[in-house]
Amino acid sequence: MGPRLLCWVALCLLGAGPLDTAVFQTPKYLISQVGNKKTIKCEQKLGYDAMYWYKQDSKKSLKILFCYNNKELILNETVPSRFSPESPDKAHLNLHVRSLERDDSAVYLCASSLDTALQSHCLPVHKPLVPARKLWGQRAHLLHKSVLCSPTPCVGWVEFYPSG
């Protein structure tokens, strides 16, 4: 039997922002074999209603995974069923990953904001033309939609590193 190739996935938790950050992710460092189950915990001490998990892959494209508002899932962007978020209260949003795969290697970011774009009162919005129709040559008004509308969103991140 030939040598076995062991795939390891390492999680490296890095803090972002000032030392008095209000969003925390644990554990700080975690190393696991592919196939194992792991949990990343996120806690925010801001009292905000909205919490998010993002994934940034090696190509640096940032994608939203989950969005919660007051413990209720309001967005799940076709995330594999191996990823399951848990919100025991509005201050916590844990990310459980079962059966880790090599493709899970990425930076995982937890964030919190005052509101979500779905019910935000802090976003500048242009009202559409009335009546709501566009004739050829008329100007169109665009509605700007942002996921994080807090003036200073707090972000932390977790990184998966393959080794071997």
From TrEMBL:
Tell me the first and last residues of the signal peptide: 1-21
Q: Name one Pfam family in it.
A: V-set
Q: Name one GO cellular component term.
A: plasma membrane
Any idea where the Immunoglobulin V-set domain is? 25-112
Has keyword Methyltransferase? no
Please provide the record's keywords in A-Z order: Adaptive immunity, Immunity, Signal
Q: Does the keyword Nucleus apply?
A: no
Query: Mind listing the GO biological process terms from this record?
Result: adaptive immune response; cell surface receptor signaling pathway
- Read off the SUPFAM superfamilies from this record: Immunoglobulin
Return the protein name. Answer: T cell receptor beta variable 3-1
Taxonomic source organism: Oryctolagus cuniculus (Rabbit)
Gene name of the encoded protein? TRBV3-1
